[in-house]
Amino acid sequence: MKLLGEVVFVGLGLNDEMGISLRGLQEVRTADRVFAELYTSLLPDFSMQHFERISETKITFVSREELEERNGETILEAAEAGKVVLLVPGDPLIATTHVTLRIEAQKRGIKTRVVHGASALSAVIGLSGLHNYKFGKTVTIPFPENYSETPYRVIAQNRRFGLHTLCLLDIQTDEKRYLSINEGLKALMKIEQKRKKGIATIDTLVVGIARAGSESPIVKAGLMESILAYDFGKPPYSMIFPGKLHFMEAEALIVLASGPEDLRRMTE
Question: CATH classification of 120-266, choosing from 3.90.550.10, 3.30.950.10, 3.40.50.2300, 3.20.20.140?
Answer without folding.
Answer: 3.30.950.10
